[in-house]
Fold:
Amino acid sequence: MATKTQLEESRRSAKRAVYREVVPAGEPWIRVIHRGQFFRIVDLEGNQAADTLFYNAHDYSDRYSAQDTIRAQQNVYLTTGTRLISSGGNVLLTIVADTCGRHDTLGGACATESNMVRYAIEKRYMHACRQSFVKAAIQWGRGLSKRDLTSNINFFMNVVVTPEGGLTFEDGVSGPGKYVEMRAEMDVLAIISNCPQLNNPCNGYNPTPVEVLIWDPGSNPGADDV
Ligand SMILES: [Zn+2]
Structure:
């Protein structure tokens, strides 16, 4: 069972990664991560939210489920040791390293509609995560569509549950270079919306880039069983 904060560093070297890409602030990213590969997201400048969706790469109806993940680990925060569970009860990925210590899966992704309701009517025209998810899904094609955009993870985002059960968007606990790393337990399609939000502190009111790295199993001998 994952505790509230479980800091764990990875021994994998960035030099051995088979894939590295910087996702600019406000932009989407989509790619398949194969079973056994390791997948790291780096908060390059700190205090940035990476809204992320995961799917069984062979069946998009089997996708990340916040409800099943929370129930399986009996904790609402995601950190080292968390198994990310799909709606079909499969383990998509396991978090194997985490230098931030807290990731949210309750707050959802920002949308033009929620920006308007939460902040002001003119915020409707600001770019939002949901649009980035739709853009990535359309570009990907292969049957993936708007209807597949369900519960997501907000890596590096600090959404605190109060003793009364309320949700509050707090200042981030992440910092420059902090990262979260996962092992894919099956072939997984990942979509990231590098959140463009400017109306709450999830990005420190200043969206910044994140970096994505992927390692093959065994690409860093002696360190793959972290
Ligand atoms: Zn967002």
